[in-house]
Write a structure and sequence with these properties.
The chain is mainly α and about 375 residues long. Helices cover about 70% and strands about 5% of the residues. A three-stranded antiparallel beta sheet has the order 1-2-3, with no helix packed on it. Helix 6 (about 125-140) packs parallel to helix 14 (about 350-365), helix 7 runs antiparallel to helix 8 (about 170-190) and helix 8 (about 170-190) crosses helix 13 (about 310-335). The chain is globular and about 55 Å long.
């Protein structure tokens, strides 16, 4: 009898999880680990990076299944604790505990020394997930008054806190992702187009002011390298030029797994991971990567359209926006449509914190209790 009960409990656990979503994420992680392994191998950086990636993917997968058994409303009710932890961790990056990872220009990590190895954690990745949960709860509570100016001001303050903290770290790319998530959620909540038009007008006015008074030469160079690539091919545009050459060499089926070249290309296991797929697995490998991301985004949209209440729908849309916008920006950087601003490709780029926290967000969406019929 005890055995039967145990099997029944396991059956209930599996029934209450959207395994279609979990499997898609697992396939993305598996492909990502292969790409990270090859990129690290060609750079001679050893196997530690892919081990961290694999361990965090498995840990994230388990965490997603466990979180999928907790009603998101209960998680939403715990928002003061979750938000407090996330904000405190962010604030710690401004203390001597904050780390600047080699090759980056922002202090956005915390580290724990374990012998000769430093275990790093990027709090802004956790803050993304907490923002999706807390902002979805806030938006669901005020959705009937979404077009009232006082309501919009409070929602703006809610969003500007994490955006401001990330911006102060110097991580402009992640701040942009937060801003795009904020806009997507407001759009989904039914904010009138006049507000978006006014914001677009304000941005248009602010662009020349920012360009001449606030942007550094480095940031200007990255943008100009997109507009005038031939003039910056040996400076700010060198990485993208080399990446495009490598992608072109992959042709239809690629040069072969672990046969990639140019180990001197910086952050190829992270920002430029798409170039590894295109070079080693060719057009076929690139389409497979894009197809997995497209299926994942479609599944998130499907869940949002079938959510039992507005909060559940907003959680799905926030997660979809996070993954979708990061994917668009990252791939745009790789194919020289957008400047390089340090955005990872979800589930594919190297980064233990990134993949682990992505699975936490997926855990919110994967619960069957989120859907109207389960």
């Amino acid at each position: 009898m005890p055995t039967v009960k145990r099997k029944g409990a396991i059956r209930v656990s599996l029934k209450n999880t959207n395994f279609r979503l979990i499997v898609l994420c697992f396939l993305c992680s598996l492909y990502g680990c292969l790409l990270v392994f090859s990129a690290n191998l060609s750079a001679g950086s050893g196997s530690r990076g892919v081990i961290v990636q694999a361990v965090c993917s498995v840990a994230g997968l388990i965490a997603a299944v466990l979180i999928s058994r907790i009603d998101y409303e209960d998680l939403g009710n715990a928002w003061p604790i979750l938000a407090g932890v996330a904000v405190v961790l962010m604030i710690l990056t401004f203390t001597p505990l904050g780390l600047n990872v080699s090759g980056t220009d922002d202090t956005a990590w915390l580290g724990v020394r374990l012998g000769s190895f430093t275990l790093t954690f990027q709090p802004s990745e956790l803050l993304k997930v907490v923002f999706i949960l807390t902002f979805s709860k806030h938006l669901a509570a005020v959705r009937e008054d979404i077009n009232r100016f006082p309501t919009l001001i409070m929602l703006g303050i809610h969003a500007m806190l994490p955006i401001g903290l990330v911006f102060l770290q110097g991580d402009d790319g992640t701040a942009l992702v937060f801003l795009l998530m904020f806009v997507a959620l407001l759009f989904a909540a039914g904010l009138k187009w006049q507000f978006f038009a006014a914001a677009f007008g304000a941005i248009a006015v602010a662009v020349p002011i920012l360009w001449f008074n606030f942007l550094t030469d480095d940031k200007k160079g990255r943008i100009l390298a997109i507009l005038q690539p031939e003039q910056y091919v040996k400076t700010y545009g060198w990485q993208q030029e080399q990446g495009i050459i490598l992608m072109g060499s992959g042709k239809l089926s690629g040069v072969g797994f672990t046969e990639g070249s140019n180990p001197n290309l910086f952050a190829r296991n992270n920002d430029l991971i798409f170039t590894v797929a295109a070079e080693e697995f060719g057009f076929i490998g690139s389409i497979l990567l894009l197809g997995l991301l497209a299926l994942l985004i479609f599944e998130l949209w499907r869940c949002s359209s079938r959510a039992r209440d507005p909060m559940g729908s907003f959680i799905c849309i926030g997660t979809m926006a996070m993954i979708g916008f990061q994917s668009i920006i990252n791939i745009g950087m790789n194919v020289r449509l957008l400047p390089i601003i340090g955005i990872t490709l979800p589930f594919f780029s190297a980064g233990g914190t990134s993949v682990l926290t992505l699975y936490l967000a997926i855990g919110f969406v994967a619960q069957r209790l989120l859907l109207q019929r389960y």
